[in-house]
Amino acid sequence: MTVTIRAFTTGWMTTDRAGLHFDHCGGNALAGDVPVLVQREEWHAAHGGDPNAGYLEVDYDTGQEVQLLDGEHDVFGDGSVVCIPTPGHTAGHQSLRVRTDQRELLLTGDACYFGETFDTGLMPVFANDLERQSQSLELLRTMAAGGSHLIFGHDADQFPDDEVVAL
Hints:
Blueprint: H1 7-10, E1 13-14, H2 22-25, E2 36-39, H3 40-46, H4 57-60, E3 66-69, E4 73-74, E5 81-85, E6 94-99, E7 104-109, H5 115-120, H6 130-145, E8 149-152
Parallel strand pairs: 1-2, 2-3, 7-8
Antiparallel strand pairs: 4-5, 5-6, 6-7
């Protein structure tokens, strides 16, 4: 799922999650002309030509303006939504920190698939760079220790189907 925090009211979209992998940016074309924020390293990896890397140009290169980022990026300039580089799963993966009046959320995407990954440090077998992914997991742990509420990228147990959760 591509996270579109305030995308249609402010005119910005960020692909966080697994960066430009098909399972996280496949809906980009539905966002119209909303600009896409992506780490430069991810954009270059997607254009690297490796057919087994999980990038499908039809999903990520959908005609929107692309803003290439080099590190943390404050989307609205007020600290409410910040792209946080968490490379490893992909070369330029980024997570998304969202601050509300009530709390700080961190959408981990594929930097941390499950709560179990967070607890044990056991990583999926597929990663662009396992060492960088481990470093990103440590960053997420630091942010959680500082009060961020983590939303894991693929943890169905975090939000049961029969439960409506207000974040």
